[in-house]
Write a structure and sequence with these properties.
single chain; alpha/beta; D-Maltodextrin-Binding Protein, domain 2; 2 domains; five-stranded mixed beta sheet; three-stranded antiparallel beta sheet; 13 helices; 10 strands; globular; signal; ABC transporter substrate-binding protein
Length: about 325
């Protein structure tokens, strides 16, 4: 639930103020993150304060949608990014990076209006497809659709009429008939899904689930958000890296134990307002939780996650010479 996934523009409770301009130093983690409900909950419950007192490590945080920019400027040690965007992050920022943790899977669905007889995107060739960007999760869908149907989603030779629209409004445009399908996030489509005016293709599976079916059975990625750090910082600050992962392990535990409460307390992070939509979102997330079980991962998980790059190279989404990102397994014998 990070980055473009969110719609709230207000600073969250635990993230605020400008990014630190000071250089990296021992005992400090400069963490730049988009507004996030789990982080807010840990802040409001005093968990982060207790962490800082217990470890002697302070966390300097800032809320921004421009995580790449702050990272490039040297103002952040750790940010979040989709795993499949990390090579682009390195190219844009000219920084060597390491994926140190995972957070949530890429959960966008391909949706159509209720009553549309389409069974897959293959049935919608030439139709209006709404997307919020030509990159991000759209790239994953491009690779999946190319692999499954031999069709192109993006680019000059797209087999669809691409309509770029605000991420918050896509499912509403779909329900009104202004587009024929959309790559939409379920948490930004709560009202339309609750009212039954839209439905998801592919048996309701997310892009991550379809990727697992094709390339990595049982895998929970690709990740819509991983935690990425500068390689030199990771090498010089193993204590801080370990503590950061411990803190987020606690955060994921709190999410599992208090998920309904978190949705109720921070509905803005799930793009819901009315009590009915809040209740719907609680039920939806209970069945389709996209938050991973553990922030830490082993080598096998990293190898499976890297298969998204094999698929993207195979389908021409990225160049053949694009290198897989580096991962830092912290569990298992080969960490």
């Amino acid at each position: 639930m990070v980055g473009a996934i969110f719609v709230s523009t207000a600073c969250s409770a635990g993230l605020g103020g400008p990014a630190s301009s000071r250089a990296a130093r021992d005992g400090v983690i400069r963490f730049t993150f988009a507004p996030d409900p789990i982080w807010d909950y840990m802040h409001d419950e005093g968990i982060i304060e207790d962490f800082e007192k217990g470890t002697g490590i302070s966390i300097e945080t800032s809320a921004t949608w421009d995580e790449f920019g702050l990272f490039a400027g040297g103002h952040a040690d750790i940010i979040s990014s989709a795993s499949f965007e990390v090579p682009g992050l390195e190219e844009e920022t000219e920084q060597d990076t390491v994926i140190i943790g995972r957070y949530n899977s890429e959960r966008s669905r391909l949706m159509v209006r209720a009553g549309n007889p389409a069974e897959s995107l293959e049935d919608l060739k030439g139709k209006r497809l709404g997307v919020f960007t030509s990159v991000s999760g759209t790239l994953v869908w491009h690779a999946l659709v190319e692999k499954m149907h031999g069709l192109s989603v993006t680019g000059k030779n797209s087999d669809f009429k691409i309509v770029v629209a605000d991420i918050q409004n896509l499912s509403n445009l779909l329900a009104r008939g202004e587009i024929d399908a959309c790559i939409c996030y379920p948490d930004l489509s709560a009202r339309e899904l609750r009212e039954g005016s839209v439905r998801a293709l592919y048996d309701g599976k997310s892009s991550a689930q379809l990727f697992a079916d094709l390339k990595a059975p049982g895998h929970d990625g690709p990740m819509g958000n991983v935690f990425v750090a500068r390689k030199d910082w990771v090498e010089e600050h193993p204590k801080e890296v370990d503590a950061f992962l411990d803190l987020w392990s606690r955060g994921l535990e709190e999410w599992r134990a208090h998920r309904d409460e978190i949705i109720e307390r921070y509905p803005q992070h799930f793009a819901v307002e009315s009590p009915r939509d809040v209740q719907f979102m609680k039920g939806y997330v209970a069945e389709h939780d996209w938050v991973v079980q553990d922030v830490r991962f082993d080598r096998q998980w990293a190898d499976d996650e890297s298969k998204i790059f094999d698929l993207m190279r195979e389908t021409g989404v990225i160049d053949g010479d694009v290198q897989d990102p580096q991962f830092l397994p912290t569990v298992g014998d080969d960490r």
